[in-house]
Each structure stands twice: as C-alpha cells, then as structure tokens.
Amino acid sequence: MRQAGRSLPEYFPVRGEGTILDAIRDADRATEITLQPVRRYGVDAAILFSDIVTPVWAAGFGIDITPGVGPTCDRPFASAADLDRLRPLDPDADLAFQTETVRNLVAELPPQVPLIGFAGAPFTLAAYLVEGRPSKNHDRVKTLMASEPELWHRLCDRLADLAIATLLAQVDAGARAVQLFDSWAGTLHPEHYRRWVAPHSVKIMDALGDTGVPRFHFGVNTGELLDQMADVGADVVGVDWRTPISVARQRTGGRVALQGNLDPALCQGSFEVVEAEVRRILADNDGHPGHVFNLGHGVLPTTDPEILGRVVELVHAEGSARGAADR
Ligand code: CP3
Asked: Domains of the chain, with CATH numbers?
C-alpha cells in the first residue's frame, strides 16, 4: 500500500524539499526511502518508492505531484492532439533512474524480502490526466469515457503501453512481484468497468504473464468489481476494509489470493482497538491460504509508526502459530 512515508520521521530528511518526483528520480534517495519501512517494521516485502504518475511524467506529459494535493497537470488531457504528449517510453533512457533504484534494492534487501514494483492502471491515471487534479466526482473523465469512446480507448491504450514498459523494466531489473493500482475504479458501475476499463487492464496483465511474477491488482471501494478485477488476470486482488475477506473470497470464487484489509483510519487509535481488528480479520480469513495481510489502503500521515510495528509483530506471531498448528 502507498505508505505515503509521511508517517515516518526518518522519511522527511531523505525526501528533502521540492517535489516528490525529484526524490523518485534520484536513485540513492529512492533506494533509501524504500528501505526505511522494511527496516523499521520488518515487513515481508518492500514496495518501490515511486508513484503511479512517474511513467506519464517521464513521457513528458506535463504532470507534477503537488504536496498535500496529489497529481496535478497545468494542461489536462482534452483531445486527440494530447495523445502526442504520451509518447512511448524507452525504458533504458526514460526510466534509467528506476532501473538503478531497483538494482540497488535487489542488492541491499535481505534475500527473503522481495521487491514489489508497480504502475497505475489506465482508468486511474486517466482520471488525473483528464481532471487535471484529484477529483471527487470524476465527472470529466467519466464524460470523456462515455461520450468519446474511441478517443477514450486510444488514451487508455497509450497508458497501458506506459504501464507495460514500466512494469517489464522493473521485473527485468529484479522486482519479484508487480502491483497494478486502479485506485479509483471503484467509482464506476460494473458494466462501465467491463466495457471501458477491464480490456486495458487485461492487456497489461497479459503482457506480464510470461515473466512469472505474481500480479497484484488493487482499487478502493471495489466490492462490486472484485470478480472482474480477478478476471483481468490478477493473481492477487487487493480488498479495502469495506468488504470482509470472507465475502471477497466468495466473490472471487477462490481463484485468486487476497490482500487486505485493515482500515487505515482505525490505526490511528489505541493498539487495543487495532489488535482487535487484526484478530477479527484473521478470524474472518479463517486460516485460508492465500491471504496477504495488509492495510485496506495507504497509511494515513498521522499514524503512529509504533502501532504499525506492533501490527506486523502480531500478524507474524499469529501466522507462525497457525503454521505450527497446521504442521
Ligand atoms: O509506499 C510507498 O511510499 C511506495 C511508493 C508509492 C507512492 N505513491 C509514493 C508517494 C506508491 C505505491 C504510490 C502509489 C499511488 N500514488 C497511488 C496508488 C495507490 C493508492 O494509494 O491508491 C495513487 C492514487 C497515487 C497518487 C498520489 N501520489 C496521491 C493521491 C498522493 C498524495 C498527495 C498528498 O500529499 O496527500 C501522492 C503523493 C505521494 N506519493 C506521497 C508518497 C510517499 C506523499 C508524500 C510526499 O509528497 O512526500
């Protein structure tokens, strides 16, 4: 999940001033920031420090991440002429900083801690490109999708190609899993997802198929889409806190592993509250294999790192107890 490392005091001195994209394209800083949560929490995997907009930025679209706001573009995507601002990526030239970061991480991470690479899915990226900033109603992007389907599919096809180039470059450099974030897909009706979004995610997942790395797929508020998100070709589907893991398993018919789903808001409370939640989720999963314990969405900036450290300890302890009981 997006750590939004903002909850770690050690994050700020390394991240430095300026836009987060400056830190992302500096391989030394990006390496160090990726390692921070692994050192602090002892989590089982590392997630590359980057952002879903990195490939679009590297292609020269004209996008930035405004602190406290999120991705913003001065000239949002509006017409076919804007497709030229999404040229194909040459990973060796355009993503050299990312390849260097991934290689550094593979060298520095303990061998039992895999690195997860990631990219943004076309709908979620298009939402930022068309709206020009984070949006509550996503009215512009939905209007483009429904009123100009031909242009919509051309836009998504370009964004899918950017995601494929990015993910393949990450895997080539040593990432051992990939996650495709379609964070805002849950704002869509299932039929609209099927028609306008799923085919592009299928293309991305298919392109990763030959690499053999597990493909995670995540969105927020996707209770009604979980079956389709599994069907696009994911091996693991992320579930936010709104859907019980047991219900998500029924909806995906047991064909994928599940990731989730502690409510990040509750992690702001006392450990007693958080502990009860962790135990409730583990009980709901009922020892079923194929559960990657995680938050249901990113860490909130005001979260006490101590609480998250204790969550990791508790999940590890319960996991080993369960493993011992099964043996
Ligand atoms: O765990 C990590 O830190 C890994 C790196 C990571 C970031 N963004 C760094 C980041 C990952 C995996 C992301 C993914 C991402 N970015 C998503 C998909 C996952 C999700 O959370 O749904 C989305 C939608 C974005 C777009 C984005 N970038 C938003 C909405 C924001 C928040 C803006 C704000 O300041 O509130 C960002 C900025 C961002 N990306 C931060 C970090 C650590 C915030 C801290 C900073 O600016 O230094």
From this structure: 5-250 (3.20.20.210)
